[in-house]
Amino acid sequence: MKALTMHVDIVSAEKEIFSGLAEMLVATLVNGEVGILPRHTPLLARMKPGEVRVKTPTEELSFYVSGGLLEVQPHVVTVLADTALRARDIDEAAALKAKERAEEALRNRQVDIDYAKAQAELAEAIAQLRAIQKLRERAHK
């Protein structure tokens, strides 16, 4: 029996990251993780920085998104993100440096820093590092 599929598009402000058929998509929303299958009820939801997994008929792909919107129609799912990367393309060293910078800024409590921006940068760096870690765990299975 042929598996049901849906069309998935993952796009950032800069470019299209993925476009193709998928059997399932898993994304991190502001309210928690959601799994999307073909014929899912229409949905429009905000995503938080984190991993998006796409199970195609032949493989499972992992992406990092900086947040954005998830739009679900019965046969089409669109992920719109400011930043989207294939998890394997994340620069781990840069993510670690960004995490350290944000933690240092929050620790120093300088009057002239933007705490909301520092917290957002910290959350984004942590989400990138988690995506790398999950990708490595799946590769070792």
TrEMBL record:
It is found in: Cell membrane. It is a peripheral membrane protein. Residues 108-135 form a coiled coil. Signal peptide: none annotated. Its main location: membrane. Residues 6-84 form the ATP synthase F1 complex delta/epsilon subunit N-terminal domain. Keywords: ATP synthesis, Cell membrane, CF(1), Coiled coil, Hydrogen ion transport, Ion transport, Membrane, Transport. Residues 89-133 form the ATP synthase epsilon subunit C-terminal domain. InterPro entries: ATP_F1_dsu/esu_C_sf, ATP_synth_F1_dsu/esu, ATP_synth_F1_dsu/esu_N, ATP_synth_F1_esu_C, ATPsynth_dsu/esu_N. The keyword Cell membrane applies. The keyword Transit peptide does not apply. F-type ATPases have 2 components, CF(1) - the catalytic core - and CF(0) - the membrane proton channel. CF(1) has five subunits: alpha(3), beta(3), gamma(1), delta(1), epsilon(1). CF(0) has three main subunits: a, b and c. Belongs to the ATPase epsilon chain family. Produces ATP from ADP in the presence of a proton gradient across the membrane. This is ATP synthase epsilon chain. It comes from Sulfuricaulis limicola.
